[in-house]
Design goal:
This protein is of the alpha/beta class. It has one domain: Rossmann fold, CATH 3.40.50. β2, α7 and β3 form a beta-alpha-beta unit.
């Protein structure tokens, strides 16, 4: 009996996945919370009040988001010059985070998952921290990959190393989603579209840097 069943339990198959990548906005909190609508409203106001864009602002915002993954990346691609921190401060710094409430059910669920859990967001790290704090999920994730992780303001090895160490924080082809990371199926940039200096999802270079930073095996990751 021991020989027959002992071997069976010694050869437990290795789990197919060992890491979950989570986005933040519209993933950890529901769309009906209204926070995403506030983000969009602030982006529109930034385009109008800070960049002086007056015509077809809603349409432009939608197209840039669709083509470049974020409106910020699209605005940079078509030639607008602005400070990243100013953008994040205007768009995220004025959000009513108090509308988000603690989610103990989600917290217990995340803690019950016996594999690595990592945040991967195009947003800045302060926004991510505010959302996690309001939801009560600060201790549910191993680390955060954010805008700052992917985009060093000064392109130096030192800052890149700092981003990698802190774990918070070109070819541009899309990588399809297999899980929680929502990617528009039509988001691939046309060959004639101007390039953006912003590294962000859903493009290949962002995933490559995220995987390297967090030491993630992409073949064993749900995203």
């Amino acid at each position: 009996f021991q020989m027959e069943y002992g071997d069976r339990y010694q050869h437990v198959p290795k789990p197919k996945f060992d890491c979950l990548l989570f986005d933040v906005d519209d993933t950890l909190y529901p769309l009906h919370s209204g926070l995403s609508g506030e983000v969009t409203k602030n982006i529109i106001e930034f385009m109008v009040n800070k960049l002086g864009i007056k015509d077809n602002v809603l349409e432009l915002n939608g197209k840039l988001y669709k083509d470049y993954g974020t409106t910020m990346a699209g605005l940079k691609a078509i030639g607008y010059d602005f400070d990243y921190d100013d953008y994040h401060s205007f768009v995220h710094g004025r959000l009513p985070y108090e509308i988000l409430k603690p989610d103990p059910v989600l917290k217990n669920l995340l803690h019950s998952l016996p594999i690595r859990k990592v945040i991967f967001s195009n947003s800045n790290e302060e926004h991510v921290a505010n959302v996690l704090g309001r939801l009560g999920l600060e201790d549910c994730f191993e680390g955060v990959i954010s805008f700052e992780t992917l985009n060093s303001i000064k392109k130096t090895d030192l800052l890149d190393d700092e981003n990698d160490a802190n774990f918070k924080g070109s070819k541009r082809s899309t990588i399809p989603s297999t899980g929680t990371d929502v990617v528009n199926s039509s988001s691939e940039i046309k060959a004639e579209s101007p390039k953006t200096p912003v590294v962000c999802k859903p493009f290949e270079d962002s995933f490559e840097k995220a995987f390297a930073t967090a030491q993630i095996d992409p073949q064993r990751t749900v995203r």
